[in-house]
Design a protein that fits this description.
The complex is a heterotrimer. Chain B is mainly alpha-helical. Chain B is built from 13 helices and two strands, in the order αααββαααααααααα. Chain B has helices spanning 3-26, 29-41, 43-58, 82-86, 127-163, 165-180, 183-194, 198-225, 228-235, 240-276, 285-296, 304-331, 333-339, and strands at 62-64, 79-81. Classes of the chains: A alpha/beta, B mainly alpha, C mainly alpha. Chains in contact: A-C, B-C.
Amino acid sequence: MSTLLKISNLSVSFPLENGRAPIVDNLSLEIKSGEVLALVGESGCGKSLTALSILRLVPKPGRIDSGRIELGSRELLGLGVTGMREVRGRDASMIFQEPMTSLNPVVTAGQQVMEAILLHEKVSRQAARARTLELFKRVGIPDPEARLDAFPHQLSGGLKQRVMIAMALSTHPKLLIADEPTTALDVTIQAQILELLRELQEDYQTAILLITHDLAVVNELADNIAVMYAGRIVERGTRLDVLKTPAHPYTRGLLRAMPGLARRGEKLNEIPGTVPQRAHWPTGCRFCTRCSEVFEPCEKTVPDLTQLSSTHSVHCHAVEQKIHAAADVRLSPGEGSSQ
Amino acid sequence: MAAHHVSNLIVGALLVLLLYVSYWVRHQRLWREALLQLWGRRSISLLVLSLYTLVALSDSVAWIGGTTSTGDAVFAHDARSLLDRAFDGTSEKSYSAPLASQEFYGGATLAHPKSHVLGTDIIGRDVLYLTLKGCRVALLIGGFTSLIAIPLALLFGISAGFFGKWVDDIVFFVISTLASIPGILFLIALIMALGKGTLSVCVALGVTSWVGFCRISRGETLKLRELDYVHAARMLGVSNGRIILRHILPNLMHLVIITFVLTFSGLVLTEAVLSWLGIGAEGSWGQMIAQAKDELSRDPAVLWNLAGAGLAQFGLILAVNFVGDAARDVLDPRTLKENQ
Amino acid sequence: MLAYIIRRIGYGLFVVLGVLLLLFALFFLVTAPDDIARKAVGEKAMPHVIEQWKKNHGYDRPLWPGDGHYADNLLVDHFRRMLTFDFGRSDADDTPILTRIRQGAGPSLSLTVPLFLIGITLQIVLALFVAFFRETYIDKMGVFLCVLGMSISALLYIIGGQFLIGKLLRWFPISGFDASPSVIARFLALPVLVGVLNALGGGVRFYRTVFVEEIHRDYVRTARAKGASDARIMGRHILRNAMIPILTNVVMEIPFLFTGALLTEAFFGIPGLGALTVDAIMGNDFSTLRTMVYIGALLFIFGQIVTDISYSVADPRVRLE
């Protein structure tokens, strides 16, 4: 599989009381074609901004300060307005968290999907309408003929999200960016939408960048996972790597905190403290204020990349130290060399 | 009690109010920060407004006595304000151009050559003096009227929103009826019925302008009533009066300020129209402009009356509009929350 | 939908009755018939002259329905006549009010309709333009100019317009009116121009706010993510949503097209309904004034009902069953 999307050293900043502060800080990410990468993190860690940056939809006063984003062979950050418009909706599509407000309330569902097609392909309106009807059937919208002419407020949340998915996949994009697609939906609907996304991903072989804070969702869909905290990626690996053998203290804390693992009457595990405000980010590892394994270098130095396996890597001083200690033990001559 | 005593008392009361408010604001972080932000954005406009207010105040403090420059015994028994006394004895016989030495028509020498910055009017009064006197009238129209209209609107609006049911029905019906008569027509009808004069104008303007804000405060109260902490207060048995005073009213304050500033300019402009129709307030800029209209058709035209009143009015309203916009941005509930 | 319309009209009639009551209070109680008579014949007139005047103009009956006077009193009379559009005669010069209204409607409309159409179009176009460039210098300059324009009194616009264009530049006549089609435009040019300028500042500002509000909505982000151009978003997405508040605003203006622009007509010598009202003020003509206020209120209430209905037509979310 070839690399489809490559984000290198992306920094996005917002103005604060005294100057600008990076919300996404020197972030690098890769997605291969056909792969589902989940970008996991708490609210405010910058994952949505990362996603928006790909399509250059960062809202003012935010600004992309530096970095490269390569989709296929094109470098996106250098594209002009017309070039970007071609990419949006055709090479890469996006669906959003709030289906309630993401659809235009005075335009019918069918027309909105047709617009996505007509913007990028020279087809007749009838052809677009026919394709939309097929898409509606494909995403599981019951009574699709009637729903073509329905207004968004006449559809339930789940149906609206299906319309959004139809709209996003209508042009067979290579990359689908899904920003918390199920967070605003009921649990039962969530499962259906995730199932739908999995089917469509297999059918169309679309790569998906799935933004979420819900580890259950990750478990359903993701091939690979990247964990994000306060603007940086702290751990990445395959689904099994991260969920079965988490390395970073934050990831471990997240997994421990899942209510499903606790028994009745037990105190829920939580990660102590809260995400520090942007103005108070420490110079070193940003998790150090809440980390159970914090020690001397954590506050001042940013952790380097530590490769745990060919697929699994982490940014953590504690892990790095443990690895080196283990390596030292194995390598040192003298005591224990007979083992 | 003579008119000038009332006026003096009101000035005193306003000063006391100002002291109280500034003391209170110093201890309320939210309002203090809002005020500082406002100052940061619109310091020029705020200074301009203070200037207008000072001039208006100088015309509001009056007393009888003292000497007149002409030694005129008649005038010594009228209450004259600070402003009156400052411009005492500056009149001419008739028109003169700004900073002229001769009368405009005829060329006779003036009593006070080169001292009238804006010239004199048809009966020789200094136009700058008249313009400055207009400040008081404008602030009266804009400010005082709002001071009547806004509490009235709050009273009915909160009652309607909070108590609901038949109180709401009655208030809503009254609002609908009053709002159904187009503003200017209603004003005209009221003033014709009440008799012309500054007080009638204030009352009429007050009656017609409370309706809009009443609707807004009713709507907001309806929303606030459903908030969780209001429900909690009711369940705890807190009396309705306390709930309104401590929970509803403070949350309407930002709307009060914005409405006050925004309707201020509307009132002053409307008064100008009323003046032209002959039913405006005494000595207002609107009146000056209306009178000046005829002067324009003279040959050569007399411009300074119009210029003085027009620019003064424009300056005040522009400053109020700027401050009002900035106040609305600063007091927007969204920005208020962010500052916390 | 029909049920809603009927209910709405019903409430509207109720409000009309309220208005009539208010007018009665203003024009018969606060200003007693004696005062009206005195204003007409003079403060120092003899009592019998006043009584005669009152009799001629129908003010000589009792105010309230007392015993035996159920039909013949001013209150019932007032209600009955206003509701049947029997407006009677002017207090000032005895001409039938309805005739004057018929005569004045035409000139008023010929002024207000072009003013309205040109004004709205210009305001929306400028607002779209400024909103498109929001946060840039164009936007800031635009808003500044709007506030500037809003701060100038209507009087100044009229006087300034008359002076500059009428007297100095002599492009159009300062005032007067001639209904013949060949010259009517020349007489209306200046009043329309002045009227449009007067309303421009506030209008552009208002519509700009509407457009900017819409620009921040989520569906705009979705449209952008689809690859739609900014122009398309403005025209097809935002405008359609902004139409809702715009339409309600516009429909509310329609009643005022009839009542005429009071100041403008008086200043420019256009013999419309506005000038009629101004004459009534100047001449202490209470019966005409009463009628004009009543008509204004009627049109306003009518306008509100139409606005409510059009709101539900424009916004598919608000379909009133």
